[in-house]
Amino acid sequence: EQVSRIVKITDIIAHEKISEFETCNNWLEHIMYNPSGKRFMFFHRWHNDGVDHTRLFTADGRTCNDMFSFPDVRFYSHAYWKSEKELAIWSLIPDQDSRLTQMLRHLIKWIKINDMFSQVVRRLYRSSKPLISEKITNRITPSSNLLIYHDETCQYHVVSHVLQGNGHISWSNNQNIILNDSYQDNEAKRWLMLFDCSQEKNCFIGCFDSMYNDCGFRADLHPRYSMNGKYVVIDSAHMKNRKILILGQRSI
Predict the structure, then answer these.
(1) CA distances (Å), 234 to each of 80, 87, 124, 221, 225, in order?
(2) CA 125/CA 141 separation, integer angstroms
(3) Any bridge partners for residue 148, and if so which?
(4) How far apart are CA 86 and CA 149, in angstroms?
(5) CA distance 251 to 192
(6) CA separation for the pair 58, 34 (Å, rounded)
(7) What is the pLDDT of residues 70-105, one digit of tens each?
(8) Could you report the per-residue pLDDT of 13-37, keeping only the tens digit for each?
(9) Is 58 helix (H, G, I), strand (E, B) or coil?
(10) Which residue, among 144, 175, 151, 171, has the nearest Cα to 77 in the 3D structure?
């Protein structure tokens, strides 16, 4: 057995470097091979102004050559290789970075730095949000969508505008059903669901009490299909101890 380093974090930081990298914690995580293992994805993350930001890369699975960086929207989350060349990932729709968008970003950054002013603005924004057009609110607090990128390109499409959230996803073998989960709701429950891509409908198949939330002890469901597609495997701490559960067809 031999261990070799194929990527240096200093090289990633130097790639299209921005000044804030110098004063932030930077790290790499969420490595995931595509089905054949010929390429893999990973995140470059850094912490700035109380927020974790993310860039997305893919590269050759053995040498890290042919590295590709995706649009720098600063937010990438749960991902899944749908096929050899298709990477599904919760992210923001790439923006043309208009002057209005730039002004809003600078304004939001300034508001976050000023704590007292930030509290007043947040209350005002929450109360007035129903009166503001969706186009403007998406620029102020953009919501994530499940996108499918074609590897080594910036070409993407949105899976469905009906599918909401930022869950851990995996596809059924026929690639028509998405297995998805949620973070805890207001009643500290995590939901397990199936999304029918052809009909654009959600089917909730499980609900689990969440004993620990917003901390290192939490247990996200992390749902995934078995290789034959007959079973669903999840993590859960609804019985106070963290366990791996296997759900069969009768269970769901």
Answers:
(1) 16, 22, 40, 5, 9
(2) 10
(3) 88, 157
(4) 6
(5) 12
(6) 10
(7) 999 999 999 999 999 999 999 998 874 445 555 555
(8) 999 999 999 999 999 999 999 999 9
(9) strand
(10) 144
